[in-house]
Automatic annotation (TrEMBL), chain A:
It comes from the Bacteria. Residues 46-122 form the 2Fe-2S ferredoxin-type domain. InterPro entries: 2Fe-2S-bd, 2Fe-2S-bd_dom_sf, 2Fe-2S_ferredoxin-like_sf, 2Fe-2S_ferredoxin-type, 2Fe2S_fd_BS, Aldehyde_Oxdr_Iron-Sulfur, Beta-grasp_dom_sf, TAT_signal. Pathway: Alkaloid degradation; nicotine degradation. This is Xanthine dehydrogenase YagT iron-sulfur-binding subunit. The keyword Ubl conjugation does not apply. Keywords: 2Fe-2S, Iron, Iron-sulfur, Metal-binding, Oxidoreductase. The keyword Acyltransferase does not apply. GO terms for molecular function: 2 iron, 2 sulfur cluster binding; metal ion binding; oxidoreductase activity, acting on the aldehyde or oxo group of donors.
From TrEMBL, chain B:
One of its GO terms (molecular function) is iron ion binding. Residues 26-135 form the Aldehyde oxidase/xanthine dehydrogenase a/b hammerhead domain. Transmembrane segments: none annotated. Keywords: Molybdenum, Oxidoreductase. SMART domains: Ald_Xan_dh_C. The lineage of its organism: Bacteria, Bacillati, Actinomycetota, Actinomycetes, Kitasatosporales. Pfam families: Ald_Xan_dh_C, MoCoBD_1, MoCoBD_2. It comes from Streptomyces paradoxus. This is Xanthine dehydrogenase YagR molybdenum-binding subunit. It comes from the Bacteria. Its EC number is 1.17.1.4.
Automatic annotation (TrEMBL), chain C:
Residues 1-220 form the FAD-binding PCMH-type domain. Coiled coil: none annotated. InterPro entries: CO_DH_flav_C (IPR005107), CO_DH_flav_C_dom_sf (IPR036683), Diverse_Substr_Oxidored (IPR051312), FAD-bd_PCMH (IPR016166), FAD-bd_PCMH-like_sf (IPR036318), FAD-bd_PCMH_sub1 (IPR016167), FAD-bd_PCMH_sub2 (IPR016169), Mopterin_DH_FAD-bd (IPR002346). GO terms for molecular function: FAD binding; xanthine dehydrogenase activity. Keywords: Oxidoreductase. It comes from the Bacteria. SMART domains: CO_deh_flav_C. This is Xanthine dehydrogenase YagS FAD-binding subunit. Its EC number is 1.17.1.4. It comes from Streptomyces paradoxus.
Amino acid sequence: MPDEVSPHPSRRTVVAGGLTVGVAVAAGTYLSAAGAETASAADATRSLSLIVNGERLKLAVDPRSSLLDTLRDEVGVTGPKKGCNQGACGACTVLLDGRRVLSCLTFAVLHDGQEVTTVEGLADGDRLHPVQQAFMDHDAFQCGFCTSGQIMSAVALLEEQPGITEDRIPEAMSGNLCRCAAYCNIRDAIASASDTMAKGR
Amino acid sequence: MTSRTEVPESGIGAPVNRVEARDKVTGSARYTADVRLRDMAHATVVTSTISAGRVRRIDTTRALAAPGVLTVITHRDRMPWRSTPADTGYLENRFPLADDKITYYGQHLAIVVAKNLEQSLHAASLVDIDYEVDASVPTLDEAMPDAYTANGRLIRPPWPQHLVLPPGADPQAALAGADVRTDSTYRVPHFSHVPLEPGAVVAEWSGGTLTLHDCSQDVHGHREVVAAVFGLPPERVRVLSPLVGGAFGNKTDVWGHSLLAAHAARVVRRPVKLVLSRKQVFTSTGHQPPIVQRIRLGAGREGRLAVILHDTVNATEMRGDRPEPAIISTASSYAAPVLAVDAKIAKVNIGPSISLRSPGDAPGSFALESAMDELSYRLGMDPLELRRRNHLNTDPLTGKPWSAKHLLQACELGAERFGWARRTAEPRSMREGGELVGYGMATAVRGEIPDRARAEVEIRADGTAQVRTATQEIGTGALTLVAQITAAGTGVPLGRVSVRAGDTNLPRTAGNAGSRTTGYTGSAVHLAAEKARRAAVRMAVTDPDSPLYGLADGEVEAADGRLFHRDDTKRGETYRALLARHDGKPVVAEASYTPRTSHAVATFGAHFTEVRIDPDLPRVRVTRHVAVFDVGRITNHKAARNQAQGGIVFGMGWALMEKLTPDPVSGRYVDAALTDYHIPVNADVPDIEVLFIDEPDTIAHPHGSKGMGEVVSVGVAASIANAVHHATGRRITDLPITPDKLVG
Amino acid sequence: MEPFQYVHARSVGEAVGLLARHPGAEVIAGATDLTTLMRDGIRRPSHLIDVNGLALDEISALPDGGLRIGALCRNATDDQRIVRGFPALVEALRSGASPQIRNRATFGGNLLQRVRCPYYRQPEFACNRRDPGSGCAALDGDSSRHAILGTSGSCIAVHPSDCAVALQALDAEVVVRGPRGERRIPIDAFHRLPGRTPEREVMLRDDEIILAVELPGRASSAHSHYVKFRERASYAFALASAAVAVEVRGGTVRSARIALGGVAPKPWRARAAEHALLGRPFGKDAIDAAARAATKGAAPRPDNTYKVSLAQAVVQRALTELGGAR
């Protein structure tokens, strides 16, 4: 990718470290999923099939590997984040067969054949999911580290309780910590996405 | 002067989305732990389970024999470090694995590298350590009798640790002669930064050059230390900071794990990734130490302060002296004719402390603003009125007037929005639905910490612009800020401005700490953008082929990627057209910024809090909070409001739930986990109303804007504690205000 | 984490057989507790027996009007038969953990979750529950969140479950199966007090698995309520909680079951509080008496005496709201 800006502002990517609205210098050395070393060097791997964001994958994983580590290190999907690895922050939230779960609190081997959706699998091509768009427009994050988890949790919430009233959002989103504390904007974004989705139905 | 309530639709102040917003909502935003390199190995640090003693024996045999292990490094077999902590400015006064001595729980004792993460974690659990355990000093209470004044050899605080104003005054006599006095002691516990992103680093050697991907608030500062430690010239070290997942001060300095990862990568000749566990974050990347503060106030019956005495003792690590600057703003807060402040430290077996969002002022304001509330009750005076009567227009600490100060206006505005007049002064006098209702307020001041900044702006022949500066994006909106300022300065539309940042190959600027990004880096970008525009204007007015030829420079303005006549906007041309005629070469301008010092520069704020407390099940619920901030001109109202709300919630966490508890026997932390160290969740947070005075302070900085990441947290804890007192009649002087302190 | 053998059991019989053959084996289902225990080196199973998919997730009606809830039923359940017939249980479930965790956590696993005592959870501290005979670091340490009832000189940890507290008030039975067949364990007997053997936490044998939890059809169950008090508004373990189930006829209390959470090493049946209600009009006086009696026998430590007031207050609140809801 050249060190240039796409003329379309909404398509602009910002890469930090070097943070570039456009591109990182070291980008060529970052690996895609296909190039990553798999756990084949491990002593005892187990074969596993997962459907990640619609794609069926055959993996060989260390049975000790959490679903989160498998997604990040083997599948190369790094939207889900490891904030605590103890089920206390929600940054690793993904959808497992459509329901929100903490991917750090389970082993990948328990989920042979199951379907996982991460934040990377939400947009329809260039069209963002209404929750993603609302998070952008309402500035529902600062550092962004919890955002993938917040968005996945919110997407699931609006499936669980379509048309949820605003006063019930805080409790329903309390499994996702945000240390920057963009909580007010997160609630506004979810309420707004809920409206958008209701209109779309 | 009135408060601006209207928010501009474009340009400076416009509530535009963050430039990296799309990346953050699609999962493509890259943080350090997301960096994956070919043949990358995974490292785990092994940490001490005792807080004082030494390693008698460390056996790595089983770890080395475990599957996938590439190396295990301990103090016995590390390579020599090439410098000393003092010479490099390394925060901890000891390099990792320096020797066998242990002075705190969680100290790094070994690093294990394996082919994959599970192997690395497993092998780390197999490192067998035999300790010789010494008696430890686990708590500040135990250390208090030995408190002393930091000797200045190990630290160079930029603030006086002992000060009497005016010099030679007798504060004790002033206190004794005062009509009304207060004397209270306030305690804050160990607080932790708890960014959601744990410390992470990826180290890669190529030839003799080290590339370090490190979540950093200051890549150039990191590089200086790392280069010195490895005996390399700075240009042989490159530090890249991808997006940072929150920091709040714990990523300002290089920590041991980054040095260890770089060391290990050299040994195994592969890139090495190391991510701290959440538990290790609590002990490996600093904290705010516990502090005991005594405040004595003397005042006349009419409510004018006669004297302020503020004495503090904070815990510090065994190997270094780090006074926490809780007294830093005491002199700059109120008009007391006599003032005495004194900061001492006491040695405890804890790891090194480090700045935590509004260091000094967050804990200091809890004490001082609580004491002012107590005084208001002694005087029978409204707490807001007490602040009015002791307002300062000149900073007694420096003797200089403030560049701008609209604190009284902030107080009036906040009081009106909050409905402060509805408050009945008597504690426990307001109730609703079985709950006690309390109103509290506090003010905030945060002095700026001067720094230098540099940036480069380029206007290109394709009509785009790029801003380059080594700032980092830690969540404060730095990238958006520099893009907006570049757009405003060059007239290139925001959507066509790109940003490069977070890389030591870019111009060195202020670290993203101490509220310095907006004021300092923002000014450098502002100056560079102005300079680039002026250079382009000069080019146009001197180019016979330009429609602007012959105009005076000052007659040309820029907007929408175009230069045009101020009075005849149709007369003009685009940057694209202009630069195409000049070989398509970009206009590049670099600027550095050093602030002037004719005035004192600070940011101010006023907080108003409503709490509701069920008397039988007394958890403090903050149900309303109104805050008004005086931080100069707002660059982006959307991001600023978000940051202010976040800072207020940060203060709520300190006030109501956060605490890291040392086990009284072993000195280990009992609650170094997010299941136990509680930070606020969504349901804890009420709607928070934030207002800005939004008056440009061009004496402080040329673009009129000041940093606000810290002042928004200052005073929050006191505002809440004062509301709790109003609701319950209880003055809680030790944070956090947990239910156990309100029961019965 | 230590390596382990992963086995996906195809039947309950196979799972029980594997447990019997491998003394170091443990059952895994929702995994929400075991993953962190293994990561922290507190549990080191030789085998993980995956029982997901064994059709133990159904909820079915019992002839007496009660319900049988399969051990693998997830805590996120919003089954209307529970909502209407056993409100305290749903309230307890919804107050526990977070939606993400409730989507995975199972009823069986909830009953078997380990204590949250930080001295248990961090292997560098002495803990009799984790390493029998090593001592209890909490006794000389920070015990501000520890138990005030049912403690012993070897352990003062509190049981962390909300669900199990409600199950106490609803008089549940735990149905288990081992090599010798099925047996039923009343919920009050299922969790053990620490005594001198805090490492023996439950009456479940090592080669048994939980099949289901059965809730008997009781008049009081539909008239039940759960109140939880914690340090923050959500996503925290209880400082004190109370589940109450009261049968009132003609204005008089005919039966009452009251259980406390967050204050004892097991879901604590407050029998003295129940007695204080029986036969009396269900009003403020009886409720006050029950609240006072709820902590009978409490032996708080210097740093957790506040829990006595909190425990009484949650009982009072739960009963008052239950009365008000009539």
